[in-house]
Specification:
Elements: H1 4-18, E1 23-28, H2 41-45, E2 50-56, E3 59-64, E4 68-73, E5 79-83, E6 105-111, E7 116-120, E8 127-132, H3 156-163, H4 170-175, H5 185-195, H6 215-236, E9 276-280, E10 283-287
Helix pairs in contact: 1-6, 3-6, 5-6
Length: 293
């Protein structure tokens, strides 16, 4: 499932084309994705101006004129393709080919000026909803989410307080969207490696008994922010050329240190151990037992 960096990459790629644009018409080529599309979906979007493109956790938020917001979730396999827009920059070093349109192009937005924005989702775990603007933060998909890991509300003090009474693993705590929004399995594994913290470590051990942050909490917050920023940068460079019909997102897998590297040598200088894989809460965890304590 796309995590925060992939969704943020999509948001940044959409902004030059969709923000401020008028949706001339919309096509819904099937009635549902993960859930049914909003009633009269195409009619409700026709003629609407997109005022802003935002993101909350792993959800894209398109503010529409008239006081409504379109929520878009990419699900397991969803992607967005832009065609007919001016070239802005060029694909970066993480560019990969992707098949062009086909039977999984489920929703198409035709913009005034000729550009199209297509939502493709082979497995149909994605979703598109339209909700009133004043209800967006109380919507069940968004209510109760923790702070954004790249926002001002996420720091060592907050993380220590949030983990102080948790006796689950640190890995499980960081995957809890109520603790911090948008983190997923890949970037938690990478951040824990950078911070030198074992995924098996109990979450409360990054705080003092009074709930104050330790050096572990400081290292972890820094690692999370660094990994996410680098991943966004890597992904964003491959979405700049919107005319590439086969333009895939640039993914951070090219610089993974632990994720999906089971049995391979640790890349830390002078470390002679290999990357291990364990299962935690039904998810694969990759780590170096020597570098992460």
């Amino acid at each position: 499932m796309p995590e925060l960096p992939e969704v943020e990459t999509v948001r940044r790629g959409l902004m030059p084309v969709l923000q401020g644009a008028v949706i001339e018409s919309a096509e819904a080529r099937r009635p549902d994705l993960r859930w049914p599309l909003p009633e009269n979906f195409a009619e409700r979007l026709a003629g609407r101006r997109v005022e802003a493109i935002g993101r909350r956790a792993k959800y894209l938020l398109a503010d529409l004129d008239g006081g409504e917001v379109m929520i878009l979730h990419l699900g397991m396999s969803g992607s967005i393709r832009i065609e007919g827009a001016p070239v802005k920059g060029r694909p970066g070093r993480f560019h990969h080919p992707r098949a062009a349109g086909g039977p999984h192009d489920h929703v198409v937005l035709h913009l005034a000026g000729g550009a199209t924005v297509t939502f493709n989702d082979p497995r149909r775990f994605g979703a598109i909803l339209i909700v009133p603007y004043d209800q967006i933060m109380s919507h069940p998909l968004l209510a109760g989410l923790g702070p954004e890991p790249l926002g001002n509300g996420f720091n060592a003090e907050y993380l220590a307080r949030a983990c102080a009474r948790r006796h689950t693993s640190l890995k499980a705590a960081l995957l809890d969207q109520k603790l911090v929004a948008g983190l997923g399995n890949i970037y938690v594994c990478e951040a824990l490696f950078r911070a030198g913290l074992s995924p098996r470590r109990l979450a409360h051990t990054i705080a003092t008994t009074e709930g104050a942050p330790t050096l572990r909490a400081e290292r972890l917050v820094t690692a999370i922010r660094d990994v996410l920023r680098e991943a966004i940068h890597a992904g964003g460079s491959s979405l700049r050329d919107h005319r590439q019909v086969n333009g895939e997102l640039g993914y951070f897998q090219h610089t993974f240190k632990v994720y999906d590297r089971e049995g391979q040598p640790c890349q830390t200088l002078r470390c002679k151990d290999t990357i291990r894989r364990i299962v935690q809460n039904g998810r694969s965890t990759f780590y170096c037992p020597t570098c992460q304590r």
